[in-house]
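Aim 2 progress update. The chain analyzed this quarter is reproduced below.
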Amino acid sequence: MKKSYLVLHIAVILAGFTGVFGRLISLNEGLLVWYRVFFSAIWLFLILKLFKVSTDLARRENINIAKVGLLITIHWVFFYASIKYSNISIGVVCYCLTSFFTAVFGAIIRRKIAVTELLLSLMTLAGIGLIFHFDVSYQFGIALGTISSAFAALYTIYNERLVRHYDSKLINYYQMIGGTIGLGMVLPIYLYFIPAPSLVLGLQDTFYLLLLSLFCTVGLYVLFAESLKRIPAFTVNLSFNLEPIYAIIIAFLFFGESKAVNSSFYIGLVLVMSSVLLQSIISIRRKSCIDPQ
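Predicted structure tokens:
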């Protein structure tokens, strides 16, 4: 169990850099995500060959896995749009709402309200509010980030079911293929309404996309899927609330984002981290009761 939490928090650290790449890469959000899933599918194909993991699955299984990949692809489009229409800090902190949506969607799917999850989510919401003083200067970016977090929650809930039956690398391979095909089909329409200066990658964007796809996509989501095998989806998403902390620090250091770090920021930070810590403790205790070994 402790190893699973270590894997999870390595994934969280990698996730902290995703918003940074969104700011560094000059492409609009649609093209950025399409290249991300395309390069990730290539990396995963090579990794599966290296580890000799069979990709033979029934067509229905392939389609079911690929459909879940569409959820994470849509999440990324809205996530990067949020960053590009506001800033890194807004985009990554809105991602904290994922744990709230996971609790709500989980209650709808299970038809049972988990009071503890809802209370911890409200603690997270209070922390986010304090960090940003309910800042409405980036309303459009905040709205996009909220939609992004809802799709991230749905992805985690459905992915939790898949990791019980398939290799995590295989899951991510078919999900990236699903994202490449699905987004590729609507990309011409997307680019018609939101034109891009160029469809061809420059050397700098190519370098950043290769890093993003290898470390912050393949590495991150394989670790993410591995952690879901032993840690509940709500706890995983709540732990990812630490991602904005890393991303905001990077944004402050390298991008000069003007958000002032004051006492409210630190109080909000304590609330977010406390919600993660409390849920981790609760999850470990529940696991100990179920599996004393």
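Residues 2-290 form one domain. The first helix runs from residue 2 to 15. These observations will guide the mutagenesis experiments scheduled for the next reporting period.
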